Structure formats: C-alpha cells, structure tokens
Amino acid sequence: MKPKLRITLNAPFTLIFSLLCCIATILCVISDDLRRLLFSTHAAPLTDPLMYVRLFTHVLGHSGFPHLIGNLTLILLLGPALEEKYGIPSLLLVVLATALITGVFHNLVFPQTYLLGASGVAFAMIMLTSFAGFKDGEIPLTFILVALLYIGVQIWEGITVQDNISNLTHIIGGLVGSGAGWILNRKPRKLPS
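Structure (tokenized):
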C-alpha cells in the first residue's frame, strides 16, 4: 500500500509573509487610498505616525498582481531554504532591516515618489542564499557571480532604463542580504585563554 501524500507547512514565515503580501496587494488594487496610506512609503512629516509604519509595510503592498507574482516567485523559492538554514528570527530580522533601510533611503533620495513591493526583500534573499556555502575566511565564487549579475544589472538599468522600477531598492536589498549573509555565517572568534 502506497503512503498517502499530504501537504506540509514547511516554511511558516515565508508563507505568512507571502499571504500578507497577497492581502495587502488586494487592498492596494481595491483602494488607492489604502495603498498610499499603509502600503507605500514616501517622504512625510516626521509627526505623521503612519510614516513609521509605512517604513515596514511598504514591502507588503504591490502595484498589481504581475508585480506581486514576480516577487513571490523568488521569495517562495528561496524563503524555505533560508528559514531552514538561519531560522525564523534571523530571516525576520533580515526582512525588517531590508524594509527599514530601503524605505529610509527611498524617502531621502526620492521624496516625491511612492515605493512599494517586496523586491528589496527578494534581492536580500538572493544574496543571502548565495552565502549558503560560506566558510570563515573565504568568499564563495557563487556570491561574487550573483552579485555581479544581479546588482550589476540593477546599476546598469538604473543608469540606462527609465521605468517605474526602483533599482536603488534592489541594490540596497542586495547589500542588506550580503551583509546578513556575512554576519550570520561568521564563526565567533574564541578568546585567548
């Protein structure tokens, strides 16, 4: 008798984050006011309490379903392996750091435009994944190649292509993921006795 196949909840953080992105995107599509109010960051007075909320929630909203699907494809592909290797608290910290840093940079550099979407998170996950084979004192060749391909393309497109894609967010997300990969994979130094 063959065993029955069952669906397992293999990556709770990744799945919950993806579900929140889906809900936020539906709300963004239904209401432009909700998109501006909760799910996109932009320069606002420091007295506006929602400005601080949006620095984190902008990664949940997306401009539409193609934008959402593009980001979730990468997040659902990479997230489970990252959860298994680093654990939920570390991955949550990477996502929160990516949201905050990309939001602050965007608000300072492009104060009049709205930023939303999880592409910075996806790029952080790409770079964090490339550190999977990291050993202290070594830099994985795969990390170098991924950095050249993904971040190099973002720099090139940021200079040469005029579109509504925030290449700066991709680059910063990649840098956050790289920094997290470096920190999370370093072995603690033993103190001399």
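The longest helix spans residues 65-86. The radius of gyration is 18 Å.
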